[in-house]
Amino acid sequence: MQISRRQALAGLGLLLVPNMPVYARKQDPKVKLAVGRALDYLVRTQKRQGYWEANGGQYRVAMTALSGMALLCEGSTTNRGKYAKTVRSAVDYLVDMSQPNGLIGYEKDYHYTYGHGFSMLFLSQILGEEEGAERRKNLLRVLNNSVKFSGYAQTSRGGWGYVSAKDGGDFDEGSTCITQVQGLRACRNAGIPVAKEIIDRAKQYIKDCTTPEGGVQYSIRGGGARPPITAAAVAAMYSAGEYDESDHVEKMLEFCKENIWPNEGGSSNYFGHWHYTHYYYSQVMYRDEMVWPKYFEDISRQILPKQNASGAWKEGHIGDVYTTAINATILQLENGYVPIYQR
């Protein structure tokens, strides 16, 4: 039986206050206020069935998992906390979306591997804290099957596409590969068996997509080095056990420094896929205790003024739920509640 991080700390006498984060410094009141408004917005926009959705009703599974992660960063679980009911509804929706073949989602969904990967990430973080016997049993079933589906969906070169290799003619694409790698690692950390071969092939895929300058291409077939995918790839390689001692990861980090942050003037400019980029790059920066304070000061200075009166961030074509969930997650990383994000 898996022992949660919180249970382990309690056994050592280190958990003095319920839900107390391990890593935390005094939080800026403006950040705390913005996060509270953002999470309240997510609660208000959750559908009765437990899901969130992007513009046009798309990406229901992915938006549910990303919103759920933002709520977990606050410290709530399915059992306790301010947002327990909302988290519970999200978990139950995703469990219900698990198909007999292991896919979390449905095959006619738009780019279903995004939702599948983010769902593995979210549900695996729930597993260690789940106290309900029936829900825990369902989570174990869903996560075990989801890992099998990811293995089935992997392409011949070790990546993933918008849909499984069989459904998509063996097409691969970098950003969906990242969601699978991080989701699989999170499952493994939660005690779900993951074949080493799947991760090793994915790591090789990322290496094969990397240019001599350290940028990661859109696909194994080319498409040019992309800063957003490179930032995500670094986070994925960290999740897969590759750290900056690796020459390959070091090259990717240098590429990110040149193309994402810090640039001239020390500021991270707004650009296409900005939220996707910094969702992952913030995870990388948080691991560096020396760099993180400056990065967080810069990134929060950009995020906070753009928040709408509703608590949402109304930016980009995907929709308000997407940008709000990502910004709320970035602003809460140093709470230290979510295992996959911890140092």
Structural write-up:
The chain has 343 residues and is mainly α. Helix content is 53%, strand content 2%. The protein has a two-stranded antiparallel sheet. α2 packs antiparallel against α13 and α7 runs antiparallel to α8. The N terminus is likely disordered.
Produce the secondary structure layout.
Elements lengths: L4 H7 L17 H17 L14 H15 L9 H13 L15 H16 L5 H21 L20 H16 L6 H13 L8 E3 L2 E4 L1 H13 L7 H13 L14 H13 L5 H12 L16 H13 L11
Antiparallel strand pairs: 1-2
Mean pLDDT: 90
Helix content: 40-55%
Rg calculated over all Cα atoms: 19 Å
Strand fraction = under 5%
| C-alpha end-to-end distance | 24 Å
Order of helices and strands: HHHHHHHHEEHHHHH
Enumerate the spans where pLDDT stays under 50 for 5 or more consecutive residues.
1-23, 264-268
Number of strands: 2
Major sheet characteristics: 2 strands, antiparallel
Major β-sheet strand ordering: 1-2
**Shape, per Cα inertia axes:** globular
- Structural class of the helices, strands and pairings? mainly alpha
Instruction: Quickly count the helices.
Output: 13
